[in-house]
Amino acid sequence: MVIDRIELTHYRNYEKLIMEPHPGVNIFFGQNGSGKTNLLEAIHYCSLGKSHRISQDQNAVMMGKDGASCRLFLREGEFRKEIVVKLQPGEEFAKSVWIDHKKIGRLSEMMGVLRCVIFSPEDLGLVRDGPSVRRRYLDMMISQISRPYFIALQQYRSAMNQRNAILKKAKISFSRPDDMIEDFEASMTEYAEQICSARVRYIEQISESVQQIYRQISGIKDEAFKIRYHASVPWQQGTGFPMAEMLKNNREEDVRQGITGIGPQRDDLILTLNGKNMKLYASQGQTRTGALSLKLAQLYLIQQVTGDQPVLLLDDVMSELDIRRRMNLLSEIEGVQTFITCSDEGDLEAWQNYRTYEVFTQGGNGQLSVVKEGPDIQKQILREPVFE
Ligand SMILES: Nc1ncnc2c1ncn2[C@@H]1O[C@H](COP(=O)(O)OP(=O)(O)OP(=O)(O)O)[C@@H](O)[C@H]1O
Ligand SMILES: [Mg+2]
Asked: Which of 148, 202, 316, 357 has the highest count of CB atoms within 10 angstroms of its CB?
């Protein structure tokens, strides 16, 4: 899927923006706060229905405006699609998603329409932060290729919340947990098995490409970047999933804690570089390369499983990558529609051949102008972006 056209209205610092991106690589440079990340965030909204940043939907509406919208026109061969996300603050904040002019009832219906993979500075947390960040990575990756997984996650969470409510009640009232707990434990077990087996299967599937991409970007052959799943419910695929029994045995302890102590919400993706814990061992550049490898492996997995080419969003990827790593990265993303931001013009050195936009603000309003058309641009006739 390729994005043909982007229209933003009252979105963050864009009063009105209409642009037609290149089907290959698009590079955005500009001062801090000019609106580069906002642009990638808008694409993310149209892909997953939410921001990639820790930010509430309300914050994406231009200050002083009643509502915002992001509209993307998509193309794949002869096939066309239009996707719109509307944000309307008010007493009851409303977010709605429209696909080909039809409002969808559930966010899960937009999964897979525009697949995208984003790498942003926050993603360094994949290596540096706690397990929840890596679980989110797995969940986002698998949800984009498997709707049943997305649904299993929602169902699991709902059953777990109900079990936790029973645990808390028992804790406060010094009583035994309500008998209903058994039903919730049965549901949790059913969905946890789906979640954990999908996670293990897809980690296996990407582990080889994660290693290869890492080596390709670093250019160092003997650096081994490896990933594996760490499950709080130990089990082997093909054997029964022992969670219901464990939950039952753990009830007393869980009542004491007021929360469920095992399950996919406690699992982790372990990352090692040359056999050592990446978090404690990796340099800044290695950390960035590791996180980037996970993201590019996600892109290839989506491609493999769905046959669809996701859009790649690289926010501020340059800093801390040496010039060789930047060049190697470039060869990795060939053929993928990519949006890259950088704030330092010096970063553009490795990216001479691609369409480059300057992002700037005029009276608080974000604007773009094309400052360079790369040689590969001749493949298609392009119009200048239109500003209204
Ligand atoms: N709701 C909003 N209304 C108006 N302006 C907003 C809103 N939300 C954010 N902004 C503005 O958007 C700008 C930030 O944009 P963005 O994060 O895209 O910057 P950037 O170009 O990526 O900067 P950096 O190089 O620092 O990463 C800030 O100037 C901020 O004031
Ligand atoms: Mg930014």
From this structure: 357
